[in-house]
Design brief:
Layout (H helix, E strand, L loop, with lengths): L25 H6 L8 H6 L12 H18 L3 E5 L7 H13 L6 E5 L7 H5 L7 H5 L9 E5 L2 E4 L8 H6 L1 H14 L3 E5 L8 H5 L5 E7 L5 H12 L4 E7 L4
Helix pairs in contact: 3-4
Length: 252
């Protein structure tokens, strides 16, 4: 992963003294999202170490956060996909820890999407009840304010309340692109994290890659075969830049 000196900065819409019209002001749209309170006991039980930063492993996610934001800022990227070769490597675990670590940077706004719609798990990791279906949201059937929830003023989650087995077709539909572009326009997040399904099990991850800027690959110690990691890096890099491989479960 390339390390650069550029810091990601956010300029408020009203910095020039001219307020944006309501329909174009991201702050207005962020405030329409209902806020939920994360249960720290639940997060601790799920090993979300960045929630309270009591576990020393949180430092690894803070380091990952900083290196990722520097690289994204250098290239002007805002959409990061997180995936793994196979299920069980912990991509949702990494997504949750990374999101909460980034949320500590008050000037950085982040939206997280659970697009592992075949076997949703991010809501369980976080202890949040999903409001609606991800597939229906990507089909343009649900307004953002009826889909997303905030866990802090600068962090919002789009979670999924039902599994969907035609995910690849939904991701490749033009409406999904339009919905994601609308999300970018309305909330103007500095970063959108996509929690992807395993990339070697179905074509779902490949189907959504054209809609992101770059990919972080999660390998599970004792789960991922070296040949699978090499194969996946080659496959993904043909579509989008791979920022690096994070080894998860190294101490389990």
């Amino acid at each position: 992963m390339t390390k650069v000196d550029t810091a990601l900065q956010k300029t408020p819409a009203s910095a020039s003294g001219n307020k944006l019209p309501v329909q174009f002001d991201p702050n207005v749209h962020w405030n329409t999202l209902p806020e939920v309170t994360l249960n720290t006991n639940h997060l601790n039980a799920k090993n979300i170490v960045t929630a309270e930063r009591a576990h020393p492993a949180h430092a690894a996610f803070d380091m990952l956060r900083t290196r990722l934001l520097q690289t994204l800022a250098e290239y002007g990227w805002t959409r990061l996909a997180i995936t793994a070769p196979t299920r069980g490597c912990g991509s949702s675990f990494v997504t949750a820890n990374l999101a909460l670590s980034i949320a500590r940077l008050k000037a950085v706004s982040t939206v997280v999407l659970d697009v592992d719609v075949r076997e949703r798990s991010l809501h369980s990791t976080l202890g949040i009840t999903p409001r609606n279906s991800m597939s229906e949201y990507l089909k343009g059937m649900i307004a953002p304010e009826d889909f997303f929830v905030r866990t802090s003023p600068n962090l919002a989650f789009g979670l999924n309340n039902q599994n969907e087995y035609s995910a690849a077709e939904i991701f490749q539909d033009e409406m999904a692109s339009d919905v994601l572009d609308e999300l970018q326009d309305l909330l103007n997040p500095d970063l959108i994290l996509f929690d992807l399904p395993p990339a070697l099990e179905h074509d779902d991850a490949l189907a959504i890659l054209p809609k992101v800027d770059c990919v972080l690959l999660v390998a599970g110690a004792g789960e991922s075969k070296p040949e699978d990691i090499t194969k996946l890096e080659q496959v993904l890099s043909d579509v989008k830049p791979v920022l690096g491989v994070m080894l998860n479960k190294a101490n389990s």
